[in-house]
Structures are given as C-alpha cells and as structure tokens.
Write a structure and sequence with these properties.
It is globular and about 45 Å long. By secondary structure, the chain is mainly α. The protein contains seven helices and no strands.
Length: about 170
C-alpha cells in the first residue's frame, strides 16, 4: 500500500530517492532458474530481513479494505509478503528454490510498483531487495565475490529510518 494508507499524496521522506530508485533497478540479478538452494537456506535468507527496521511493511498480506486502498488489487495482480513465503516454505509448497526467489522478488517489486519513489515503503523495498540480492549471491556463490553493482546497490541505500507506527502501514 501507499505509505500514507489514506487519500491524498503519499508521504515522501526523501525527494532524492526518486532518482536513486531508477538506478537501483539496474543491478544484475541471478536468474531464479539458476538458483539451487535447500529450503533451510531459503529460510535463512528470509529471517534476517524480518529483523530489519520497517520489516512490518512486508511481513503480512496487504489488507486493501482495512488500509483504504481501493486500487490495490487493480495495480497489484499477484500480492506476496514474507509471512506467506514462510508459510509456503514450511508447507514445502515450492517445487524449486527459484520459485522462492521469484516470490521474494515479487514482494519488493509490488511495493515499488504501488508506492512512489521517495516514500518510506518504496525506499524500504529497494533497501530490502538490495540486501536480499547480496545475501542470495553470497549464498549461491560463496566462493565468488559479488559483482560490484550488487555490492554497491546493497551499500548505496542506507536503511530508511524506522517509521513510528510502521505496523499500521503495509507494502
């Protein structure tokens, strides 16, 4: 959902983030079909993300009615969140680890699509995506240094400041 969760313009915390958001989309991702992980490794990629500030944006499904987001289901065709991913991991619903990677990437993509650049939710999605991609690379290829653009992306976006009452907003 939009960072403000109500009618009116979204809350923009960093106007410079709009330009940075476009550049952040240019990092090279490991193709999900090439990812070979155990389900335990998948869980280990999700758990640290849930401990980050602003993780509440991404830990449960968006409730468009409760958040007064009438256009959410029009804009977001396939909702996804980290809690649903954890449930799918526990139920062993993924037939290939690449499906897990696709779902995690969908969380960040949905949040960036629905929330304009410069909002806390969009910035958090970019930050979380960069951290996930760095950690994924280091898990999949532990003996290879991550490409410079992956490391630069993971360090270029400092964690957005925690939002007071963040649990009331969702990605």
């Amino acid at each position: 959902p939009r960072a403000n969760g109500a009618a009116g313009p979204p809350v923009v915390i960093d106007p410079a983030a709009a330009a940075a958001a476009a550049a952040a989309d240019e990092i090279e991702l490991i193709p999900s079909k090439d990812v070979m992980l155990t389900m335990k490794q998948c869980q280990q990629l999700v758990l640290p993300l849930k401990r980050e500030p602003n993780a509440d944006f991404f830990t449960s499904p968006v409730d468009p009615v409760a958040l007064n987001l009438p256009d959410y289901t029009t804009v977001i065709k396939k909702p996804m969140d980290l809690g649903s991913i954890e449930k799918k991991l526990e139920a062993r619903s993924y037939s290939h680890p690449g499906e897990f990677v696709d779902d995690v990437r969908l969380v960040w993509a949905n949040a960036r699509l629905y929330n304009p650049p410069g909002t806390i939710v969009h910035q958090s999605a970019v930050y979380f995506r960069n951290i996930f991609e760095r950690n994924l690379f280091m898990t999949v290829k532990p003996d290879a240094p991550p490409p410079p653009q992956v490391m630069a992306a993971a360090h270029s976006e400092a964690a957005p400041p925690p939002l007071k009452g963040a649990a009331s907003f969702k990605a």
